[in-house]
Amino acid sequence: MALLEIDRLSFRVPARAVLDGLNLVVAAGEIHALVGTNGTGKSTLAYLIMGCEGYRAESGEIRFDGRSIDTLPLHERARLGITLAWQEPARFEGLSVGDYLRLGQCKMDAEDCLHRVGLAPADYLNRMVDKTLSGGERKRIELASVLALDPRLVILDEPTAGIDLLSIPEIMGVISTFKARGAGVLLITHREEITRMADRASQLCGGRIVCSGDPETVAASYRGRACMRCNGEECHDD
Amino acid sequence: MTELDKLLAVLDSRGVDRAILADAQTAHMMASAHKLLSRRQVPGLTLTAEEGADGIVADIRVASGIRLAHPLHLCFGVLPAVGRQHIRMHLVLEDDAVLDIVAHCFFPNAERVEHVMDAVVEVGAGAQLTYTEGHYHGPYGGVTVAPKATVRVGKRGLYRSDFSLTTGRVGKLDIDYEVEAAEEAMVELTARVFGHATDAIRIRERLVLAGRAARGLIKTRVALEHDATAEIVGITEGNAEGARGHVDCMEIIKDRAVASAQPLVKVTHPLAKVTHEAAIGSVDHHQMETLMAHGLSPEQAVDLIVGGLLGKGEGKRVVATDSERTVAWKK
């Protein structure tokens, strides 16, 4: 059953169309990988789904659970069960990891969530979510915090960026946990091994989905195209 | 109700355990306006104080090598709507002495109140002084707080101050601290203030790293809303080999509030280094959206960000509903 439906979504910045009539469906309990070169609009799509300020579609519709969410502010979308783990998570002076993991609509145990991202609770619960954390630690804590929310739809923007190679399986385990709990996962990634764990994948180029299907097919398509140069022109001719 | 009972009741309302003041092991001094209400000295710490029409004169001394296990509590305040309090304090830590001071300052009803502190502080060689000062003001904004301190920190000494005025209206605040650090001494000056309405905040802190390898940090956190103003001047001088200093000022403004920050650095020795950073702006957008993606309303998100900036992170409880505030402080 479709959890997230994106219908002919278009978004422009002054110089160009970033998204141009994009269609995408993510089902509940499905991991859907989204691949594409830098600057193709993957993060922009994440911000549009989330309802971030400055991201309002020119046309098209975003539906969650069959209901249009286009007019809802960000926090209202979050309260429906949609959340986003940012590619570059914010840092907060004076806010402990423990408090961060217990924010707002949290449903899961903070310590359990830290364990799942490979961080020892005793070492991290009282640390601050500030610049004293490394980039990789901050990414894991962000992932733990969205896990704590037990969301219905989670958008993971490059969840393995900045994570050491040995820890990638732990991150993949967390992504599987979202699926096991019935959540839909929109997984933005550049890594093929992460793409392969998805149930379906889509390739974004020139503001549209140019290939969609099983992850192997999409990964092969992504490797075989010249998207860095085509800016959608070649892909859209297919 | 006596003046002492009234001040104790205010202490209770702020969650300070009054039993501390009955503890024979804990030194304290309590003063309401120019009236001394209670004081205790403990072995190793002498505390003399005199009251007069012009103010209170206090002399506090910790003997060499004495490490006090319990903090010295200073409770100052003016409880009526109109009044004045002027305290002249001479505080000496002899060599290798260790003392924590917790100062509670109460002006809950102030409509025309002035609180002036003139302090001379001497931290001996190897001595360590931590001075934590919390202000609790009422809603009227009719108080002027003017703490002035001259501090000398001896060789390998430590001086750490933490001034906090985040409850109630600030009124007019005028902090003026001068600190000089000798060889291998360490100094940390922190101020956290939340200004509202027409509150006017001025903080001037000057830190002179005079001795070799002296280290220092001036850290200021200010949040302003409505028509409040703040003028922050943090001056650090590095005058000796290996001296290291940093000035870190962050201010968040809302509404029509106006803030300025001047981190001034001066280095007179080629092997000294002083750095500075200052940031003034509205609440960080990315922080807001990150919290809102966790289901917090914009108001809850602002509360949490400002609370984190002004607080220390400990003792916070995060709640889930709009009706409660995002951050509730444990009593």
Quick recap of the structure?
The complex is a heterodimer of chains A (238) and B (331). Chain A is of the alpha/beta class and 238 residues long.
**Largest binding interface between chains:** A-B, 29 and 32 residues
User: How many angstroms separate the termini of chain B?
Assistant: 25 Å
Envelope shape of chain B: globular
Classify the beta-strand content of chain A into a percent band.
Answer: 25-35%
CATH topology label of chain A: Rossmann fold
Report the average pLDDT across residues of chain B: 91
Average predicted local confidence, pLDDT of chain A: 92
Helical amount of chain B: 10-25%
Q: Counting H and I runs of at least 4 residues, what is the number of helices of chain B? A: 4
Overall structural domain count of chain A: 1
> What would CATH call the homologous superfamily of chain A?
P-loop containing nucleotide triphosphate hydrolases
Helix content of chain A: 25-40%
H/E series of chain A? EEEHEEHEHHHHEHEHEEHH
Q: What would you note in describing this structure?
A:
The complex is a heterodimer of chains A (238) and B (331). Chain A is built from 10 helices and 10 strands. Chain A is an alpha/beta fold. Chain A has one domain: P-loop containing nucleotide triphosphate hydrolases (Rossmann fold, 3-Layer(aba) Sandwich). In chain A, strands 6-7-8-3-9-10 form a 6-stranded mixed beta sheet, sandwiched between helices. A 4-stranded antiparallel beta sheet of chain A has the order 2-1-4-5, covered by helices on one side. In chain A, helix 4 packs across helix 6. The longest helix of chain A is centred in the middle third of the chain and has 14 residues. Chain A is globular, with a radius of gyration of 17 Å. The two termini of chain A are 29 Å apart. Chain B is mainly β and 331 residues long. Chain B has a domain of 35 residues. Chain B has 4 helices and 21 strands. A 10-stranded mixed beta sheet of chain B has the order 2-1-5-7-9-11-13-15-17-19, with helices on one face. In chain B, helix 3 crosses helix 4. The radius of gyration of chain B is 20 Å and the shape is globular. The two termini of chain B are 25 Å apart. The C terminus of chain B is likely disordered. Classes of the chains: A alpha/beta (238), B mainly beta (331). The interface between A and B is medium-sized, with 29 and 32 residues.
